Every structure is written in C-alpha cells, then in structure tokens.
Amino acid sequence: MQRWTPFNIVSVVLGFAFLYIPILLLVIFSFNESKLVTVWAGFSTKWYVSLLSNKSVLDAAWVTIRIGLVSATIATVLGTMAALTLVRYRRFNGRMLFSGMAYAPLVMPEVITGLSLLLLFVAMGMDRGFWTVLIAHITFTMCFVAVVVQSRLLTFDESVEEAAMDLGASPVTTFFHVTLPIIMPAVFSGWVLAFTLSLDDLVTSAFTTGPGTTTLPMKIYSQVKLGVTPEINAVSTIMIAIVTVGVVIASIITKRQELQRQRDERMAMAQP
Amino acid sequence: MMGAIGTFFRKRIVIMVPYAWLTVFFLIPFFIVLRISLSTSEIAMPPYSPVFSMADGWAGWMEKFNLLSFDNFVWLTGDPLYFEAYFSSVKIALISTLLTLLVAYPIAYGMAKAPGTVRPTLLMLVILPFWTSFLIRVYAWIAILKPEGLLNELLMGIGVIHEPLIILNTTYAVYIGIVYSYLPFMVLPLYSALEKMDGTLIEAAEDLGCTPVGAFWKVTFPLSIPGVIAGCMLVFIPAVGEFVIPDLLGGSETLMIGRTLWNEFNANHDWPVASAVAIVLLAILIIPIVFFQHLQAKSAE
Q1: Could you tell me if residue A116 is inside a domain?
Q2: Residues A84-121: pLDDT tens digits?
Q3: What is the CATH number of the domain that holds A125?
Q4: Among residues 161-190 of chain A, which lie with CB inside 8 Å of chain B?
Q5: For residue A140, pLDDT beyond 90
C-alpha cells in the first residue's frame, strides 16, 4: 500500500480550499450589515428578512420548485427506462442513434440545447412558459439520470431476476419487486441530481420560457447584471443550504438502504 | 407463448418511450435549427421566412424549399467577429482545460492515495459543489476578483501588491471561472482511473531502480490516460459554448461564441443568424462529442 504523503495531503487540502472558500465567502457576506459585499460591517439577517417581502423572488422560487419536482420525477422515469434500454437491450434497430441521443445532452453546450428547443416550440406553435421550460428540463436531466442508473445496472446480478421468474413471478412483478428495490438507491440519487440540475438551470430556461414565467436563476442573473448585492447572496445561501441538506439526506438514505440490503442478503444466505 | 408476446411489447415500451422523447425533443430540434439557419430574417413572428406549414401541400413546400439559402453562413464568413469568436472560444476552452487538468491531477492523485476510510468523505466533498448552482458559484467570484474585492484587499493587506490587480472583466477571470466551475468534472474521472490502479506496479518499478518521479511518468500517468481523456472531454466541450462565465466574469474583449449566439438571439432577434452560429458551433464540437459518446458507450460495455 502506498503512503499518503504530505504532498498528497497538501494538494487535497488546497484543492478543497479552492473549491469551498468562494462559497463560504458568499455565505458569510449574506449576513453582512452593509450593502457592500466586500466590506464587513457586522452581523445582520436583514437581507433574509427583506427577501421574505420580495414577492417577485418568492414567485420565482415557487415556479422553480414546481418545475424541479415535476421535471425530476418524469426525468427519473424516462431516464431509468433509457438506462434499462442501454444495459439490457443490446440489439435493436437504431441502438447507435439511441445511445448517441442519450449521451450527447451531457456535454452539449446549453446555448445549443436551449435554442433548438425554443425553435421547436415556436415551430409547433406552443405557448412558451411553465410547460415548455418543464419539457426542456426533462430532456436534459433524463440523460443524467440514465447515466447514474446505468452504472448501477452494470453491476446488477441478473440471477436474482431469473430466480424470481423461475418461482413464477411475471416480468412486471419481478421488475417492481426485485429489480426496482435493488436499483432504488441509484434511481433516487438520479432524482436528486435531476432536481438540483433543474433548480440551477439558467440558459436552457431563459431560452424556452415565455412572458410570465421567471425561474429563480433567471431572477438572480438579471439582479447580478445590475450589481452585486447581499440580497443575491442571501437567495444563493438559501439555495445552497437546500441543496446541501438534500444531498446529505439523500446520501444517508442511500447508504442505509445499501446496508439494509447487505444485511438482508446475509440473512438469506444464512438460511439453511 | 403469452409471456413471449408480453416480453416483446414490454421491451418495445421500455425502448420506445425514452426513444420517442429524445427524438422529438432532442433530435428533431436540430433539424429545425438547421432549416432556420438557411432562412432569411424577417420582422415578424416567427422572425424568419419561409415558414413551412402543413397547409402548404407538397408544391408549396417545394416552392419554399427553393427559398432556403446558405446566405447566413456566407455572412458569418464575411464578418471577422464570428471567426474571432469561434477561434477565441476554442482557444480559451483549450487553455482552461489544460489548467483544469493541472489543478485537478494532484487533487485526484492525493484522493486516490488517501486511506480507504477517508476516501468516501473526500469523494462526497468533490461532488457537493457540483450540485450547487453553477450561476451562484460563478457569481461568488465577482466579489473576490473585483478591483476593490476580497483578493485585492488580502494581497494589498499583506503587502504583496500596492495597486489593485484588474482581474474581473478580463479573460483571466474567465480562465479562473472555468477551472473553478468544471474542476469536479475533471477530478472525478481522474480519481476513478487512479483509484483502480494497482499500487504494486509502482513498487515493482521502484524496486527495479526507477525514481519516484520516473515511476510516476512511466507507470502512473500512462495508466491514468483514460481518466485524463474523459475529464478533458467533459471540460472542453461545454467550455467552448460557455455563456454564463464569459458573460459575468469576462470583459467586452472576451469574445466567446456562446455569448455571441445569446446576443444574436436575445438582443438582435436575428434567429436565422443565431441558428447558423449554433450549427457551426455544433460542427466544431461534433468530433469531440462523438468521441465522448464512443468512450461512454465503451465504458458501459
């Protein structure tokens, strides 16, 4: 076993400092008394209080959360199906095209995805707003779900499915009682990923939205263009807090499920 | 018998639903972009012509088809602004990718060598910023890099510099922004390549008289190449079309194509030219994208 040398420790510590110090500074200055975000003038929660009475920010937050919840749920269903297709069905007409379409949105510049979806909605004569943003979010987040679920399916022991079917379970029953519970942690982290990506998206939303539908990142962006204020820091801090708490809870649940499953497996093995 | 038919239909449904979704909302839109890039700009809604509609019939379609032209692409070549924007996007993306690799490698290497008990926590800490908003993380740098910002105050406070450094609204700020935002994308593939590596190979190399530095370049680095390639793709491709970072951190002289496209669309309302800009951007990125898909598909085998 190789040693963890001081050089390794220093590079990891510096790396994490680089990743976290900007976020920490942003959080700290959201509690600044002064209107300046670079000069500390004492602790205050006034920017949070003023947020509570800012109707346009609250409206934007509500729209963003609704889009996030709905799009993440649909994207998880579609992404899980896409992952099953990629892993289980090795041969069918158009598989090449399918895997291309499933991986391309992961790296596609957002300006291209946004523009192309907007032009589609215009060509289809759809009114732009909540629904078009929702469709756009489902489209790019389902591919992330597919990758997360796919990596779990790759290490999946298919003999448990065969066992269930040998014992008389139909394929649908097998899927919902055997396969899905086993891949659930991955499906769940796929959902969380889709939700946070939707929550954060600016470019695709800005292209596909219409009058009347403003998401929180769009609101933040237009505020930032006007100048840096502690109020933006406060909104950002709340968003960071929500995502952090969500991710931590998700990882605890996932770990618990994994441990439970291992325990169940051991119990099953121990039976004579 | 019934089971076989059932399986057939189930397989069809599992494949067809995501397939249909991606075809309608990912593939077809590209053909629409392509078609509009060949249209002429109009002051109308939608702001381009010809507009194909179902009511035209075949003859009407053919007639309108003849109206399509490559004028927008010719126009792009005529204005040096676009060429410079493409060129500088690729240049900025390449330099930032290289910088990200240089910053990420020691971190991933250190993580891979960390004791097994610490590794899951370190991994979690790398992934966490990836979940927090891109926009917010870019925004956080404005307060740091401003002339009267935190970095300048710190440097002047300890006496390293006497004049504030002008970093915000320059290309340097864009480099910092890209390296910072995309760092987890580079660290993760590098880490997974380095973590899988067999430590005894290094010991063998060292036993055979290789210096630690020599062993790194002859054994560790070549074995981590798949991670290096995957990480570079994940950073380079989106960075070329990046909009938020050059828009918030870059200055007016920072030309990047994502920003040009955005302005063409939102400020000039020239949809056909914006579409042509997108098509050329896609043409530049198609080779790296196909290569990336190939890598993804291969790792899934």
Answers
A1: yes
A2: 998 888 778 888 888 888 888 888 888 999 999 999 99
A3: 1.10.3720.10
A4: 170-172
A5: yes
Chain B CA closest to residue A111: B258
Q: What is the 3-state secondary structure (H, E, C) of chain B?
A: CHHHHHHHHHHHHHHHHHHHHHHHHHHHHHHHHHHHHCCEECCCCCCEECCCCHHHHHHHHHHHHCCCCCHHHHHHHHCHHHHHHHHHHHHHHHHHHHHHHHHHHHHHHHHHHCCCCCHHHHHHHHHHHHHCCHHHHHHHHHHHHCCCCHHHHHHHHCCCCCCCCCCCCCHHHHHHHHHHHHHHHHHHHHHHHHHCCCHHHHHHHHHCCCCHHHHHHHHHHHHCHHHHHHHHHHHHHHHHCCCHHHHHCCCCCCCCHHHHHHHHHHCCCCHHHHHHHHHHHHHHHHHHHHHHHHHHHHHHC
Within-domain flag for A16: no
**Between B18, B115, B288, which is nearest A78 by CB?**
B18
Average pLDDT score over residue span A145-151: 91
pLDDT digits (tens, 9 = 90+) for B24-64: 999 999 899 988 888 887 766 677 777 666 666 677 767 77
Q: Kindly state whether residue A188 falls inside one of the protein's structural domains.
A: yes
Distance from CA of A110 to the nearest CA of B (A): 7
Position A4 in a domain: no
Asked if A3 is an interface residue toward chain B (Cβ–Cβ < 8 A), one would say yes
Our count of domains for chain A comes to 1
CATH superfamily of B73-300: MetI-like (1.10.3720.10)
- Determine, for residues A89 and B11 on separate chains, whether the beta-carbon distance falls below 8 Å: yes
Instruction: Pick from A162-166, A203-207, A260-264, B51-55 the range whose average pLDDT is largest.
Output: A203-207
Tell me which residue range forms the domain holding A228. 54-270
Domain boundaries, chain B: 73-300
A115 → closest Cβ in B21, B275, B296: B275
Contact criterion met (CB < 8 Å) for B278 and A116 = yes
A18 touches chain B (CB under 8 A): yes
Q: For residue range B182-197, list pLDDT tens digits in order.
A: 999 999 999 988 988 8
A23 reaches B (C-beta below 8 A): yes
Confirm or reject contact between A195 and chain B (CB < 8 A): no
